[in-house]
Specification:
Layout: E1 2-4, E2 17-25, E3 28-35, E4 38-43, H1 49-63, H2 70-96, H3 99-104, E5 110-116, E6 120-127, H4 147-154, E7 157-162, E8 165-166, E9 169-170, E10 174-181
Length: 198
């Protein structure tokens, strides 16, 4: 299921907020903001953004008490961050044209967030492009293009939202999100019976 609707780019401030600065890979260190029921960070667009995003998700899930679903959500985060950098940032650079202007507006940053509703978790990745994600048809011979299919199979549902206007201007970009159960659901292992001569 894919749903698209407007969403605000603002994150409501919280009185109980802490920042962990120990997610480091490569030369960049990022801040992970932990609040009651959420975890968020802004990833610089570097070669290390995907593993940093994955590490942030694992720390955030520990903070939210949802370690049992960490593998699925970390894999989904890997795909969403890779898509944001590969498609969202590249599209935004093409639209603005001037990489220095894009850097000044911090529009090349990718934001990753986890929010808990108590029973469910929403993973969202925001990038600077308003272009919607496109789920490609299945092609067993393609070398890539299975990311959104993977998100669809791991999550309860996924979708994307354009960011609302701020100060009379459209905020750059969109947020691609996926919803997961907060507790791992046991999936039955199919029993296979083979009949015939041994």
């Amino acid at each position: 299921m894919v749903i698209a609707q407007p969403q605000s780019a603002d994150v409501a401030p919280s009185a109980k907020q802490s920042t962990a600065k120990n997610i480091k890979q490569g030369a960049a260190e990022i801040d992970l903001v932990l609040e009651a029921g959420s975890a968020t960070c802004i990833l610089p667009v570097t070669l290390h953004a995907v593993p940093q995003g994955r590490a942030m998700v694992r720390r955030g899930l520990t903070h939210l008490g949802a370690e049992s679903v960490a593998d699925d959500i970390a894999l989904a985060a890997t795909e969403l961050v890779a898509n944001a950098i590969e498609h969202g940032v590249r599209d935004a650079v093409g639209r603005v044209g001037d990489p220095d202007e894009l850097q000044r507006r911090r529009a090349d940053a990718v934001r990753i967030s986890l929010v808990s509703s108590g029973t469910h978790l929403v993973l969202s990745v925001t990038d600077p492009s308003p272009t919607p994600p496109v789920r490609r048809p299945r092609d067993p011979f393609a070398g890539g293009g299975r990311g959104l299919q993977l998100i669809e199979s791991l999550s309860l549902c996924w979708g994307w939202t354009l960011l609302d206007e701020q100060d009379g201007q459209r905020a750059p970009g969109k947020s691609v999100w996926a919803m997961f159960p907060k507790v791992a659901v046991e999936k039955p292992i199919p029993q296979i019976r083979i009949q015939g001569a041994a």
